[in-house]
Specification:
Blueprint: E1 2-5, H1 10-20, E2 23-24, E3 27-31, E4 37-41, E5 47-51, H2 57-69, E6 74-79, H3 98-106, E7 112-116, E8 131-134, H4 137-145, E9 153-156, H5 162-172, E10 175-183, E11 189-193, E12 202-210, H6 214-225, E13 230-238, H7 244-250, E14 253-259, E15 267-269, H8 272-279
Parallel strand pairs: 1-2, 1-5, 5-6, 6-7, 7-8, 9-10, 9-12, 12-13, 13-14, 14-15
Antiparallel strand pairs: 3-4, 10-11
């Protein structure tokens, strides 16, 4: 089986190819004089794996063109990060369900889809082909276990992510909790763990995605006030908009880590092993 990728997912594609023993198909990217994207691939096999995170609009165009270039092949689409997935409900009249629109478009021409820690699993039904979400709790747990923390506590930034954080913590053999916001006054909000004190403990905040990092930064400041020894934050998807990484470091996080679903300088956890596990039965 052969593998190819978009420009933004070259590193992850290389890791998946190495772990699975796949041959990488060379893809040449250039532009027409009017700025449109031009793509030419090497020889396509009967079965191919296409790896591409959807982080920008250009990523979306590249994915569509690569899917079309693979016409006639059995295509497995690996979508490590799916942008537009958060708009999965219509809050105001006239709004598109962007998650549905993107999924419908990418489901044409592929045989199956794998996402990684997608924001809302109900989106998977919109692809129109078998679609499965991959969890990477094992990979994050392994990374945390190797950090040699002192009396560690794993926290999720809210109740919604508590199940994911608990799965990570259970694999490590650590305690877990989630942060809750309590309004103290009209202008003051307190953020603290639901039930487990942090005094004297190393704390790791685990989340599926970090965008602005505002909640984590505020939490770090308050948890230090409550006696936390050291603060770390780990996420699956490191979006890091509006200077989020710098903001988190300034807030006192000793380390900010993400996976390679979106390739960053702090992408120190690869999701490739989880992808290979999910592909078993198809390769």
């Amino acid at each position: 089986m052969k593998l190819l990728s978009t420009q933004s997912s070259q590193v992850l594609a290389g890791e998946i190819a190495l772990a699975g023993g796949f041959t990488i198909i060379d893809v040449k990217f250039s532009r027409f004089p009017d700025g449109e994207t031009y793509i030419r691939t090497g020889e396509i096999s009967d079965s191919v794996i296409l790896v591409g995170s959807l982080f920008t609009s250009e990523d979306f165009i590249e994915l569509l063109l690569l899917i079309d270039a693979c016409t006639g092949a059995d295509v497995t689409l690996i979508l490590p990060y799916m942008g537009y997935a958060r708009q999965d409900k219509q809050f105001n009249a006239g709004e598109p369900l962007s998650a549905r629109a993107i999924a419908r478009a990418l489901g044409v021409g592929v045989s199956r889809v794998f996402t990684i820690c997608i924001h809302e699993e109900s989106v998977l039904a919109h692809f129109g082909v078998p679609a499965q979400d991959i969890l990477v709790s094992e990979e994050i747990s392994a990374y945390i276990s190797a950090m040699h923390l002192n009396n560690p506590l794993v926290l999720s930034p809210d109740r919604g992510a508590a199940v994911f954080a608990k799965k990570v913590a259970d694999t490590c053999g650590y305690e877990s909790d989630y942060l809750q916001k309590t309004r103290v006054s009209g202008t003051e909000v307190r953020i603290e763990p639901k039930s487990i004190p942090v005094a004297g403990r190393d704390v790791v905040i685990v989340d599926d995605i970090i965008s602005t990092g505002g909640t984590q930064a505020t939490a770090a400041e308050m948890l230090y006030q409550r006696g936390a020894s050291h603060m770390y934050t780990i996420c699956v998807h490191g979006v890091f908009t509006t200077g989020a990484y710098s903001h988190l470091k300034a807030a006192g996080f000793l380390d900010v880590v993400c996976t390679d679903t979106i390739e960053r300088c702090c992408s120190r956890i690869s999701v490739a092993p989880a992808v290979i596990r999910a592909l078993k039965g198809y390769i």
